[in-house]
Amino acid sequence: MVAPTESDAKGWPPMHRGSGSCMKSKLALAALFALLSSAPLAAQTSVLVVDSFNRKVHVAANANRQVPVGGLAKIATGMVTLDWAEASKLGVNLLAPVPTYAASMAGINTLGLQPGDKLTLRDLIYATMMGSDDIAAITLADFVGRDHLYRLGRQGNPIGEFVRQMNQLVVREGGKGTRFVSPHGYENTRSISTSTCADIARLALYAVSRPGMKFYTNQRTRSITIYRAGGQVTVPVTNTNALLGTGGIDGVKASSTPRAGGCVAMSAERPSSVYQQADGSSLIYRHRLIVVVLGSFDPFGEAKALISQGWNAYDRWVAAGRPITNERQLLNHY
Predict the structure, then answer these.
(1) Per-residue model confidence (pLDDT) at position 5
(2) Per-residue pLDDT at 3 exceeds 60
(3) Are 213 and 251 in contact (CB under 8 A)?
(4) Which residues pair with 257 in a beta bridge?
């Protein structure tokens, strides 16, 4: 369990290998290894729990530390695509072709997508958000990035333009420590996408604020259609979020990559509270927590424990009258 805090927890100091041969040094080194191996997981991971309606942070450790985030970058990919679909008024039923270069960029191709395959933007978002398919994310970025460049009257790299939009989205939502370098987040290039718990929480909050995104994150399985060589192939997509449907969890994204480790951004909702007012009207309070875990050996186990801890802290705060005594208690501070 991670104790509630208003500042980031300190990590363990770097470990130095001893070079002497004396038994005392070896015993000291062994003791250091034992201490490090028994250290709380929270000292190695970054976590944050925030109430989505008041943005009150209830639990935090290393929340501002910039670390690899792997496939959680796809939250921004999905949201940039949905924002584009709404702003352009073109929707998500358009067919997008898998670009020929996609396989050279991708780390994970769970659906076996091939160059020239066509999918609707809707199905590509399902594949990106539920199945964490890298080629699906690249295809979205290529299609939307090209349209951005066309509307701006510019030449350029569509992937680069799309990633620029991803980073702009984070900044717009108040992010301070994020640098995405690809639409998929997989660490197969020299530069890798990094972010913070606080910034991923901001992206998750933005995602759950958009009713459309729930359709792409709260389903366990979904069948999508690939248009290939004049025919159609129906393939199932399985959600990588193992906690989906338990404890009110309805999203948002789970990921595991070599450099980032286990990372999750969870959304958990409880039934709303309704209070009758003296004038006969009703006052409705909604209850939702966003939980972010980065760099964990057991992201689902830790997220489950944090949700329980977060609700306990949230209930105490509500019982006390929802006080905000210091701006450091709010996500805007992080």
Answers:
(1) 44
(2) no
(3) yes
(4) 261
Query: For the chain, how far is it from start to end, CA to CA, in angstroms?
Result: 21
Q: Give the chain's mean pLDDT.
A: 88
Give me the DSSP letters along 191-207.
S--EE-HHHHHHHHHHH
Q: Which of 309, 225, 297 is nearest to 268 (CA)?
A: 309
Q: What angle do CA 245, 247, 249 make, to 5 degrees?
A: 50
Taking residues 126-139, report their average pLDDT.
97
Q: CB–CB of 293/310 below 8 Å?
A: no
- Token readout for 243 is 């906690």
Confidence bin at 33 (pLDDT 50/70/90) = very low
CA within 13 Å, CB half, 261: 13
Q: Is 9 a domain residue?
A: no
Q: What whole-number distance in Å separates Cα of residue 43 and Cα of residue 176?
A: 22
The CATH number covering residue 168 comes to 3.40.710.10
Residue 32 included in any domain: no
8-state DSSP, 87: H
Beta-ladder partners of 288 = 269
Give the span between the Cα atoms of 309 and 40, in whole angstroms: 16
Domain membership flag for residue 220: yes
Q: Once rounded to an integer, what is the mean pLDDT over residues 285-306? A: 96
How many domains does one find in the chain?
1
Give the mean pLDDT of 216-229. Answer: 96
Confirm whether 190 is domain-assigned: yes
Single pTM value for the model: 0.86
Distance CA 303, CA 264 (A): 8
Please name the residues in contact with 105: beta carbons below 8 A apart, sequence gap of 6 or more. Answer: 134, 138, 159, 182, 184, 188
Domain containing 253 equals 42-333
Token duo for residue 33? 């290894």
pLDDT in tens, 39-53: 333 347 999 999 999
263 dihedral zone (left: phi>0; alpha: psi -120 to 50; beta) = beta
How many residues can be counted in the chain? 334
pLDDT score recorded for residue 279: 86
